[in-house]
Amino acid sequence: MHRMVKPLLEWYGKYKRELPWRQDAEPYHVWISEIMLQQTRVEAVKEYYIRFLKHLPEVRALAQVPEDELMKLWQGLGYYNRARNLKKAAQVIEREYQGEFPEEYELLLKLPGIGEYTAGAIASIAFGKRVPAVDGNVYRIYTRYFADSSDITKGKVRKRIRDEVGDALPEKCAGEFNQALMDLGATICIPNGQPLCGECPAANWCMAGKQGNMLDFPVKAEKKPRKIQERTVFLLEYQGKYFIQQRPEKGLLAGLWEFPSQEGTLSLEEIKSGLQDAGAGFAEIELLGKGKHIFSHVEWHMLGYLVHLVELPQDIVSGGVLSTVEQIQNKYSIPSAFSVYLEEILRRNG
């Protein structure tokens, strides 16, 4: 990989992406951006990143932020444990490092929510340490470059690639080289569709490019198919407010707020019968239609109903809160799994 260092850095100098988190190498900024970018597209992250730093501009603010406020700032990014681990790590930094980021890779790796890639990114970009930051982009570039058909889901393969990338890192600009690899994978050696090999600074040495089989790499073991789960979602409206409840502290979407739902696809008659059994008087029930949300291991296929209540049983009130649309927008974090139904009530209420 040493052969690609100079041409890749020259290419990066000309074509690097202008991103909000690249305006400085402040470790807090690098950290927040890297955690946000996990499982999320760059374009989607930009707005969240700017808003997050406006509300929580430093480690101390993040360490002290109330849980609901943090979840609201994170709403729409998904994988909410990322945000919870940010707060936990900020508290460790405040408590054990007096609010200053540890510079060493090994110490960064001990912080909650920080794995090998993120530790490498912070250490190299913010502190100039000569450590690799190997993500999906780099695994793809490496396996195409060497036409390496090893299964990149295997730990020993990933370690070998990290070691070889680390060996190629230039002494004085490791962070820049790591970012150059990120940009190359995001804009040239792309994951979906035909890579732009004619524009690649490493094309002269890329074995897959010469063989014309770039799309055969990287090789991954097949994932198990996601479990399909049918759910019925209820938007319970009472006097212009909507009932929401908090999910359990553990499990899927832990601690977030939601419209009540249950497994299975219920018919209109089944819903009416259930409401009557609960003592909930209703004036009208509207079918809102289908929704779908894909998690890493399960897929929700949803059917939503809007129920206009005229009586609200005490057992329902005690299990959650009645909220105005404004409160739902500004205070409570409703996960994107329910976005199709949230957008419907926002539309109806202007």
Which features characterize this protein?
350 residues, alpha+beta, Endonuclease III, domain 1, Nucleoside Triphosphate Pyrophosphohydrolase, 2 domains, 7-stranded mixed sheet, 16 helices, 45% helix, 15% strand
Q: What does this protein structure show overall?
A:
Helices cover 45% and strands 15% of the residues. The chain has 2 domains: 2-216, Hypothetical protein, domain 2 (Endonuclease III, domain 1), CATH 1.10.340; 227-348, Nucleoside Triphosphate Pyrophosphohydrolase. Strands 1, 2, 3, 4, 5, 6 and 7 form a 7-stranded mixed β-sheet that branches. It has 350 residues and is of the alpha+beta class. The protein has helices at 2-15, 27-37, 42-55, 59-64, 67-74, 81-97, 105-108, 116-127, 136-145, 155-168, 174-187, 207-211, 268-277, 314-317, 325-330, 339-348, and strands at residues 227-238, 241-246, 257-258, 261-263, 282-294, 298-309, 321-323. The model has no long low-confidence stretch (mean pLDDT 95). The longest helix has 17 residues, at 81-97. A hairpin with a 3-residue loop joins strand 5 and strand 6 (298-309). It is built from 16 helices and 7 strands. 31% of the residues are buried.
Indicate the topology.
Elements (H helix, E strand, L loop, with lengths): L1 H14 L11 H11 L4 H14 L3 H6 L2 H8 L6 H17 L7 H4 L7 H12 L8 H10 L9 H14 L5 H14 L19 H5 L15 E12 L2 E6 L10 E2 L2 E3 L4 H10 L4 E13 L3 E12 L4 H4 L3 E3 L1 H6 L8 H10 L2
Parallel strand pairs: 1-6
Antiparallel strand pairs: 1-2, 1-4, 2-3, 2-7, 5-6
Helix pairs in contact: 1-11, 2-3, 2-8, 8-11, 9-11
Give the biggest sheet.
7 strands, mixed
Q: Would you state the CATH class of the largest domain?
A: Mainly Alpha
Estimated share of beta-strand residues: 5-15%
CATH architecture descriptor text of the largest domain: Orthogonal Bundle
What Rg do the Cα atoms give?
24 Å
At the fold tier of CATH, the topology name of the largest domain is Endonuclease III, domain 1
Euclidean distance between termini CA atoms: 56 Å
Number of strands: 7
Average pLDDT metric:
95
**CATH-level-4 superfamily name of the largest domain:** Hypothetical protein, domain 2
Backbone structural class? alpha+beta
Order of helix and strand elements from N to C terminus:
HHHHHHHHHHHHEEEEHEEHEHH
Residue windows where pLDDT falls under 50 for at least 5 positions: none
